[in-house]
Hints:
The chain has 295 residues and is mainly α.
Amino acid sequence: RTAVLAGRPLSSALIEGGGAVPALLPAMTAAGEQSGGLGTALGRVADDLEERAELASQVRAALLYPAVLAVAAVVGVTLLLTLVVPRFAAIITGSGQTLPWSTRLLLGISGLLAQWWWVLLPACALGVVLSVRWVRAPAGRAWWHAARLRWPLVGTLEESMSAARVLRTMALLLPTGVPLLTALEVAQRGVGNDVLAARVAGATRRLRDGATLGDAFAGALPPLAVQLLAAGERGGDLGALSARAAQHFEQATRRHLRSAVALVEPAIIVLFGGLVAFVALAMLQAIYGINARTL
């Protein structure tokens, strides 16, 4: 507001805002100022931001139940090891019998948690803090973003989401007269993964050097997106085909998200069910051994 009152264009004022505004907004505002359709341009940005917020909300809502399930399972197993198992430990160890390896392992873990929780808890908290700080550093951030792309389902989900953001940005900017290279630079800033953003930057450099869209984006975006962009370049309808490709990858993101959540929930149940089964088996093996010796 201060910059606009000083006489500068709104697009320049938004650029001075830095991270306070989305990267798409200054470019769309500049296009609207040049074409005389600022209201229409801002309306398109608002619609796009609402769609992105809705998709992010769906992602958070889909991951909420698995997160709650995981926390409840961790708390349950921890209480089992720190409160229930120690009550049987004195009886089992006082029998003088050689305990099975599973029971010895269980009692060791239980004793470690019960006696050294005051050390383990701060150590875990410190580990989380150091990990977060390392991931925020450039080297750690690059490693973390590259590792996520190698994960099953997660990598596919992130690639679809990033492709949708790039294509949606192009679909919004190109019809307003923004140059293709400028639109790609804006799209690159909207990609949430540094590795994928570097691929888009490389495609932009190849395009600036004279390559076609299909050749420039080969390997930077999914094959279907590359084919649609190449078709749009040949047919002179790049904006419309970018919008069509963005819609496809937005839908693909939702499908991948549903698939990931559908696999995460049973995986958590099986994992922590296996831990509870191990605890029960270790206790029963010791109890059966004591009964057999008594008989």
